[in-house]
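Bug report (template v2)

What were you trying to do?
Predict the complex of my protein with nicotinamide-adenine-dinucleotide.

What happened?
Run completed; filing so the output is reviewed.

Input:
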Amino acid sequence: MEIVKVKLKDRSYDICIGNKILKGIGQRLRSIGISPKTAVISNPTVYKLYGKTVLDSIRSSGFDVIPIIIPDGERYKDISTVEGIYGELLKHRLDRKSAIIALGGGVIGDITGFVASTYMRGISYIQVPTTLLAQVDSSVGGKTGVNHKLGKNMIGTFYQPKLVWIDIDTLNTLPKREFLSGLAEVIKYGVIKDKGLFGFLENNPEKIFSLNKNTLSYIIKRSCEIKAEVVSKDERESGLRAILNYGHTIGHAIETVTRYKRFLHGEAVAIGMYFEAKIAEMLNFFKKRNVLKIKALLDSYGLPSEMPSGINVNTLTTCMKLDKKAVAGELRFILPEKIGKVNIQKGIDIKIIREAFRIKD
Ligand SMILES: NC(=O)c1ccc[n+]([C@@H]2O[C@H](COP(=O)([O-])OP(=O)(O)OC[C@H]3O[C@@H](n4cnc5c(N)ncnc54)[C@H](O)[C@@H]3O)[C@@H](O)[C@H]2O)c1
C-alpha cells in the first residue's frame, strides 16, 4: 500500500492507495479513535457494488454501522439531501465522536464532508472515493459542499477528512467515460507541476486503458502528492491553491452554458486546458509546440479539446466573469509557462480570450 501524507498540523491525514484494500477499512478505522457508532453514506449504484464489503469490514472491526443511501446524481447534491442525512444520523443517535464514511464519487464525498462539518458542529469523516476524479482530486483537500439552485458548489465549507482510503480495484466497474473524465485531472497535474507525469501519460496509453494496477497506482499517487503539497501550503485558496484551477476558468463556463448536461467535469476541463494553453501562447508565455503536445495528449485519451458547436463566445466570457473564482469581476487564469509550470494571471484583455476561441491551429 502507498501512503501520501497531507500535512496540515493537527488536521494532517493519510491518503492510502492500494489494490483490493476496501476490506481493510474497518481495521484502519480502529486507529482513528472514534466512537463505535458509524454511518456509510453512498448511492444505490456504488452501494450495490461495494457496500457489503465495506460494511462487513467495519462491523467485523467492532463498529456499529448504518448505511445511508441517497439517490445517484449531481442534482441530489443539495441542501434537502443534507437535511435527510442529518435526520438519519440523529435518529440513529450518532454522537460527536462518531464518524461518517463517504463511499462513492465526488458527489457523495462533497455531501458527506459538508454533513460532517456541520453535524453537531463537526464530526470526523473518511473518504472512500470510487471514481478516478474523486481519487485524484475531490476526496483530497477538504473542499466540501452542495449546490444551490442559483449556482454550483455555492454552499460549502473547508473541512478535512481524517483519512482517504483509495481502492484502485473499484475503477474496474467505473464507466469508461467517467474514467477518462478523471484522467483529464491527472493530465492537469502533469501540466501544472510534473513534466515527468505528463511524459508518462504520453508514453503509456495502453497501460492506462487496460487499467494496469501499477500504472494506476503511480498516476493516482503522483496526483495525490501534488494536490497534498499544494493544499498543505495553501489550504483555503488564498494564493497557490488556485493553480489547481488550470483549465477550470473556461471549463466551468462551458459546464454552465451547457447546463451541466453535455459534458462531464473532466471533459469541460480538457477543453479549458487547451484554450488556456492557447491564451498563454498568444501572450507569448508558452510555446506553440507545447500547446500542440497538450492537444495531442487530450486527443490520445479521447478527451475533447475543440470549442463545442453552438456555444456563444460572449455568453461564455460573461459567464467566466460571474464565476466564484473571478475576483470583483476580474478574470483570473492559470496559464502554463512550460509543461510542469503554471502562473496565475489577472487582467487579461477580453479581446485576447475571444480571439483564442476563434483562432484555429
Ligand atoms: N471537493 C472538491 O475539491 C471537488 C473537486 C472536483 C470535483 N468535485 C465535485 O465532484 C463531483 C463529481 O464527482 P464524480 O466525477 O466522481 O461524479 P459522481 O460522484 O457523480 O460519480 C459519477 C458516476 O459514477 C458512479 N460510480 C462511482 N463510482 C463507481 C464505481 N466504482 N463503479 C461504477 N460506478 C461508479 C456514480 O454512482 C455516478 O453515477 C461534482 O459534484 C464536483 O463538484 C469536488
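What did the reviewer find?
The chain has a mean pLDDT of 95. The pocket of nicotinamide-adenine-dinucleotide is lined by residues 43, 45-46, 49, 72, 74, 77, 104-108, 110, 130-131, 133-134, 137-138, 141, 143, 153, 170, 173-174, 178, 265 (CB under 6 Å).
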